[in-house]
Amino acid sequence: MATAPAVQPKSTYVTKPKVYLVGRQIVVNEELQRFLNDEGMLFATDTEQAAEILAEIAGRACYMSFGKGRKSNQEYIENILSSKHGSVLEHAVWNLLITGVSRALTHELVRHRAGFGYSQLSQRYVDEAEARYVVPPLFQENAELRARFEETIDTLRKAYVGLAEAAAAYVQQKHPELAPRDRRKWARQAARAVLPNACETKIFVTGNSRAWRHFLELRGSPHADTEIRLLAVEIARLLKQESPNIFRDVEVYDDPDGMPAVRVEHSKV
Questions:
Q1: Helix, strand, coil percentages for the chain (3-state, nearest 5)
Q2: Catalytic residue among 184, 210, 219, 229
Q3: What φ, ψ does residue 25 adopt, rounded to 5°?
Q4: Residue 13 falls inside a structural domain
């Protein structure tokens, strides 16, 4: 019988994000072929990436150009990018599960609204007594700054635990009729007020390729906040591997400031 892998203890402090690709699209070939048969058209493509196929189908549907013009998917997508016909890229979607990022980062991430959907860890329901904390990249460079950061975090963590316990006792006394789960929620939602922006969170993000490109262009820039910039670099590397044609013009490079960054050839598609 197979045994479960041993669970490794987690460090209190996190220094880099993790990005998991947990969802991608498929093409329903039978329905695509039924459409082509009904319209008396032929269509073939040289890519196996569903997102790239769907973007091409969407574009060709605008002009009913199936079987005409550009032959390769790469050529077709390149024309979309260069002509900034970005709406057809909204049909290509990926689902990412992101961990090891701070609440400060997700405050900026969720400002990207068009083309995105978010589901984030709840501090009202989840006990943050054993939460992890993201060390800002600047503090990772300097041992003295990191020590002061960790000292501050330890103080705040203890304050949270003490407030949560005191609040739970108060709510139980004031509202004995409440179920234990509801009492814990009341206590945690009040105690979380002292948790810092560095508190690690987990967020499920669904975005279409046009939205992801916009995110990478803005947040991968050297002018972006350092933590979200490093996240953008990780996402850029993942999506370039996932869809070489749609993200062909997205480049990860080493900036003179000593950190990786992202630049996009076809801006604002």
A1: 50, 15, 35
A2: 219
A3: -85, 165
A4: no
Q: How far is CA 244 from CA 51, 239, 240, 266, in A?
A: 11, 8, 5, 15
Which residue range is the domain that position 186 belongs to?
138-194
Residues of the chain with pLDDT under 70: 1-9
User: What residues contact residue 30 under an 8 Å CB cut-off, 6+ apart?
Assistant: none
Residue 111 annotated in active site: no
The count of structural domains within the chain is 3
| CB-CB neighbours of 249 under 10 Å | 18
Residue 117 β-bridge partners: 206
Alpha helices in the chain (DSSP H): 29-39, 50-63, 73-83, 103-109, 137-140, 143-174, 180-191, 209-219, 226-242
Do 103 and 66 fall into the same domain? no
Q: Read off the pTM.
A: 0.93
Amino acid at 182: D
Say what the pLDDT of residue 11 is: 84
SS3 101: strand
How high is the pLDDT of residue 10?
Answer: 74
221: buried, middle or exposed (CB in 10 Å: 19+, 13-18, 0-12)?
middle
The answer to whether residue 4 sits within a structural domain is: no
Please tell me the predicted confidence (pLDDT) of residue 253.
Answer: 98
Residue 149: Cβ within 10 Å count:
20
Q: How far is CA 25 from CA 130, 178, 248, 266, in A?
A: 36, 44, 19, 24
**Each residue of 48-63: pLDDT tens digit?**
999 999 999 999 999 9
Same domain, 112 and 211: yes
Q: What is the pLDDT of residue 183?
A: 87
